[in-house]
Amino acid sequence: MNSDLKTSLRPFHHDRAGGALSCDGVSLGTLAKKYGTPLYVYSANQIAERLDLFQQAFSGRDHLVCYAVKANSSLAILKLLAERGAGFDIVSGGELERVIAAAPEAVGRVVFSGVGKTATEIDRALEMEILEFNVESESELALLAECARMIKKRARFALRVNPDVFAETHPYISTGLREHKFGIDIRRAAEIYRKAAKSRWLEPHGISVHIGSQIRSAQPFGAAMDRVVKLVTQLKREGIALKVVDAGGGLGIDYHGGEDGADPAAKVLEYAAAIEKALAGSDGKLLIEPGRFIVAQAGALVTRVLNVKKNGKKTFVITDAAMNDLIRPALYQAYHEIVPVKPRAGRARAVDVVGPVCETGDFFARDRMLKPVEAGDLVALLDAGAYGMAQSSNYNTRFRPAEVLVEGKQHRLIRRREEMKDLLATEII
Ligand code: LLP
């Protein structure tokens, strides 16, 4: 293993034993005081480092890391990644506009995935000359051809094939089985490529696969890639030479922060080895679409304790962040480590950490062992950089949090907190 790739799990550390929590040395207490809570805080260094891990791991071949915008679509983060050579995997016209706003020079490095693209979205992406469309059905391919014909531009496409590979993850985020709504049955793909190859408006450019998210083992990625490579070889024999193989995203992180996840670099190398093994001997460009692995551990949601309340035997720690700010625990029973920013002395005890939203599902943790906290204390929900802010909402007419990017010893606001006028702006009485 290349030890240069060794990197840290999280940028959040206590200054010293019993000291306050900081992000790359910038105190979370200071940030909370300056910008208020709830507050998302990200380490730019870690995001750049994670991108670099993938870029180094595949440096032996022509490749492009297309960051999955859905994981965290904040403009400053997109810009940071684009400046370091990343491309982008988008799933909506809105995400395309985000890339254009943050890094217009990167639009040629965009792949457009998603099961339901509209003609308007396709038109805009054709006009912007994105790298390729990852097409998920025959009817979508017909729509793409029609849009391309109207503006007389050939559309580069990849079929997103469904390889029927099982990946161990939460059922809501597993996608690579025939029973899922995603992709085209791999057994039918060759026939569709053959037909499309005859179209004047379609260019068979690549092939793509994405088997799910938060996958911790490298094995299913290799298995999916094996099936894809077989198809690529068969098509090549028939004279359909695809230039790009897109392995999708999905590499998981260790939310428990245990030993297993102690070396993200090793995880990336293991993932790359599984893909390289399947690709052995094939040329062409490799695309990957990681989202979570790049941004999750770089981010924390900092929140203030409003109240500590006892109901019978249970203790509830009520925070000013809620399910609308970070929905992962409510939606996927996801685990996020919770750390007091300034630890108090005393024994840990089992508490429920909950938000103020009027739903029993509004919790961050149940029966979690937590060191004592009191009203006014700050706590940080770790590994919240991916699918945190991106899945936030205004439920209960709550303002979505502000976001801060820590850049070395500096920090800056990259999204201000919403205000009532932002929420009312679109409404008509
Ligand atoms: N490419 C495609 C086509 C995808 O659908 C996804 C994620 C990715 C790439 C990036 O996957 P990643 O590397 O981030 O695992 N909200 C859920 C995760 C949903 C993932 C959806 N697709 C969560 O919070 O766990």
UniProtKB/TrEMBL annotation:
For pyridoxal 5'-phosphate, which residues are the binding ones? 250, 289-292, 387
Q: Indicate the residues that form the catalytic site.
A: 358
- Modified-residue entries (N6-(pyridoxal phosphate)lysine), positions: 70
Catalytic activity as recorded in UniProt: meso-2,6-diaminopimelate + H(+) = L-lysine + CO2
**Stored SUPFAM superfamilies:** Alanine racemase C-terminal domain-like, PLP-binding barrel
In the record, the note on similarity to other proteins reads:
Belongs to the Orn/Lys/Arg decarboxylase class-II family. LysA subfamily.
Q: What does this protein do?
A: Specifically catalyzes the decarboxylation of meso-diaminopimelate (meso-DAP) to L-lysine.
Can you name this protein?
Answer: Diaminopimelate decarboxylase
- The encoding gene is lysA
